[in-house]
Amino acid sequence: MLLLYVIVVLVTLFLGIKRYKYLKQFQNINGPPALPIIGNYLFMMRNLKNIDIFNEFPAKYGKTVKMFTGLRLSLLTTDVKFLEIVMNSSNLINKSDDYIMMFNRWLGDGLLISSGDKWRSRRKILTPAFHYKILEDFIEVFESRGKFLVDNLLKASSEDCVNVHTIVSLYTLDVICDTAMGTAVNVQCNPNNKYMKAIKTMQDIAIVRFLNPFYRNKWIYKFTNLYKTEMKALEIITSFSLGIIEKRRKFLESHHSDDENKYDEFGKRRKMTFMDILLKSTINGKLLTNEEIREEVDTFLFEGHDTTSAAISFTCYNLSKNPEVQKLAYEEICHVLPTDRAVTITDLQNLKYLEMVIKESLRLYPSVVFHGRVVGKEFLYNGTKLPKDLMININQYTLHRDPVEFPDPEKFDPLRFTAEKQSKRHPLAYIPFSAGHRNCIGQKFAMLELKSAIAKVLKHFELLPVPGYKPVLISKVTLTSENGICVKLKPRSA
């Protein structure tokens, strides 16, 4: 008993000294009071309230705040001057350990969580996947999948409150599977698809692990039922992806002519998919393995599915609350988009006002609320030494509501994004697709998909607000709403 008492005292003393060292080192940076051992962990666990809590931090503690996750110190910032370093320094390109803990088994060393030379080489070979000519081919996918989206919305339009996020998420998964892998999953016609369910399971488990300190420990986690559930979902996802990759690799190997490669086994001209580029790419003279390709395809699917569905859904919500904005967007769509031919990439690019609407919606409801970076090498900032392995988190939700950069920040005003007004703002005051070295490689793809989907919705429906409804924001892997993202759909007359 005495020995146990001594051990407890020594451990407590050690932890206290460690905490004191950090507090002294970062005495120039304020932050909320931290509890012994767990620090500010309770803030993180309250994910139904932590957006509001963190949104109040700049007024209480300043634009850069120190917080403790257990004993580990991290900084939470909305300071654009600090962001200049965080986003642009080659010393800060590694993602935080949280990404690795949540997604490593699923996404492996894919672009989201890889670092160093591996990240650089993968980024280099993936960049051509978003070339203009390839994006041009994807418009047909957006449009064809958009027809199913309209059909599903029409079926739900008799309801007084439609959770558009549920319907839109099926559309974005269809699109991403078709463009990334060249494979039709057709979840819009079959929402109970086991692949769709497995992806949702993996996303749900990721946030549970992030919020629960016991599940964060990899040794404890492996003995839980949640781990078993993850392994089953992971098997469904990986076997599906690897099966498609192997089939496509064999097809490419058996067709050596570039002309032949332009056509599939049914004689239809093939579009170049994300996976095709990976299958033909080499690093140091070696082709990527099926597993390496799977990591990148699944990363693209993960990053381009939920984020895009949230952006489309919140834009619909904002349009329902702002009828004058919706009217202008609808008039532009009717004027710009053709009725006598297929929509082209140029048509979508010419939807200038709709683009401003989308940007303003992403300002108020960024798909990813927090971005995390890890210091790779100690450096000095404003007289404070930032040690190696320090986590730096960007609070994007609050950054986008800075009243200096965005006067009357809660007002929905697309005209904030005229060229003139954008030129007067700090370039890092608005970063819905992150920025710097690790900005979103697929942001042009995302904007085209958003325009295509929202234009389809507005052409067929007037979006009306649901009386008494307000989204209850919750920070999961992406920003979403606990009570859905809801509107009333009024079909337009033909």
Automatic annotation (TrEMBL):
CDD domains: CYP4 (cd20628). Keywords: Heme, Iron, Metal-binding, Monooxygenase, Oxidoreductase. InterPro entries: Cyt_P450, Cyt_P450_CS, Cyt_P450_E_grp-I, Cyt_P450_sf, Cytochrome_P450_Monoox. PROSITE patterns: CYTOCHROME_P450. Its cofactor is heme. The keyword Protease does not apply. It holds the Pfam family p450. It comes from the Eukaryota. The keyword Oxidoreductase applies. Belongs to the cytochrome P450 family. This is Cytochrome P450 4d2-like.
